[in-house]
């Protein structure tokens, strides 16, 4: 009631945390007053996670704006929290960008060991050159000792070209299943990190991702060298404006150039 964030126990062993991402939005000019931890949300999150850790609970975090799209100070503090509670946070789910993507989180010491993934689901919202889409997650079930981790996910779309044909009926259809489409042995953070590295060398696989990124609508233009470098950098960057996360990638573009490319493709 005070600030729009809350927690609830889904069932024994699994806790849901819903964050109010308006408190990290780059478009919220009120945050010029306090951008570090508005409404004390992050301090509250630490308390919830610490209590969950003590109780042996796993936690799913949901929110609207993905962490890398947040204000710098909020994003970096959140990244630190995820790193600290990597054994408690079983999954993160966000939206906002309208496209199909994800953001990686790595250990703070080396920025090389994957600790978490923020899954960014596509939107039902219609946009030019985007189909409406939604995602269904398969999660480890409710049993003693469950990891409650994401095991797989599948995305469904409404093909607008087909739906607008004369006499056609709107028909939702499955676009893809993640592990099948990308050849993933599982859906843990390490698998998604390896996928980014495979994208660098497997151009066919990367262009498949570029197509699915647009929810099955043929992209307006191919994603070539600079675009690819920027997109892979975005996938590795779970916190705002951190050039260090993109250094292992090739080709190595100047980070300001990458940020400019990000701004061009963002819908929100």
UniProtKB/TrEMBL annotation:
- Gene3D superfamilies from the UniProt entry: 3.60.21.10
Q: Which GO terms describe its molecular function?
A: acid sphingomyelin phosphodiesterase activity
Record-linked InterPro entries: ASM_C (IPR045473), Metallo-depent_PP-like (IPR029052)
Boundaries of every Sphingomyelin phosphodiesterase C-terminal domain copy: 114-235
Give one GO biological process term.
ceramide biosynthetic process
Q: Does the keyword Glycoprotein apply?
A: yes
Q: Which GO terms describe its cellular component?
A: extracellular space; lysosome; membrane
| Keywords carried by this UniProt record | Glycoprotein, Hydrolase
What domain of life? Eukaryota
Protein known as: ASM phosphodiesterase
User: Organism source for this protein?
Assistant: Steatornis caripensis (Oilbird)
Q: Which gene encodes it?
A: Smpd1
């Amino acid at each position: 009631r005070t600030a729009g964030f809350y927690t609830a126990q889904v069932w024994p062993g699994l806790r849901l945390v819903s964050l109010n991402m308006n408190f990290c939005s780059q478009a919220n000019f009120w945050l010029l007053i306090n951008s570090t931890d508005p409404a004390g949300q992050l301090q509250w999150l630490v308390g919830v996670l610490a209590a969950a850790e003590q109780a042996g609970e796993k936690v799913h975090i949901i929110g609207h704006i993905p962490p890398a799209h947040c204000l710098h100070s909020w994003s970096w503090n959140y990244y630190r929290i995820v790193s600290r509670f990597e054994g408690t946070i079983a999954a993160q789910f966000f939206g906002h960008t309208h496209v199909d993507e994800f953001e990686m989180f790595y250990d703070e010491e080396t920025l090389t060991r994957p600790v978490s993934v923020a899954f960014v689901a596509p939107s039902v919202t219609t946009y030019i050159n985007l189909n409406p889409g939604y995602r269904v997650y398969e999660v480890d079930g409710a049993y003693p000792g469950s990891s409650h981790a994401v095991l797989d996910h599948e995305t469904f779309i409404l093909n607008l070209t087909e739906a607008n044909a004369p006499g056609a009926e709107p028909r939702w259809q499955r676009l893809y299943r993640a592990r099948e489409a990308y050849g993933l042995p599982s859906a843990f953070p390490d698998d998604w990190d390896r996928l980014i590295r495979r994208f660098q060398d497997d151009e066919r696989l990367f262009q498949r991702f570029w197509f699915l990124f647009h929810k099955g609508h043929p992209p307006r233009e191919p994603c070539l060298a600079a675009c690819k470098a920027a997109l892979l950098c975005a996938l590795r960057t779970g916190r705002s404006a951190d050039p260090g996360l993109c250094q292992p990638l090739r080709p190595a573009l100047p980070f300001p150039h990458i940020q400019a490319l990000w701004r061009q493709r963002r819908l929100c």
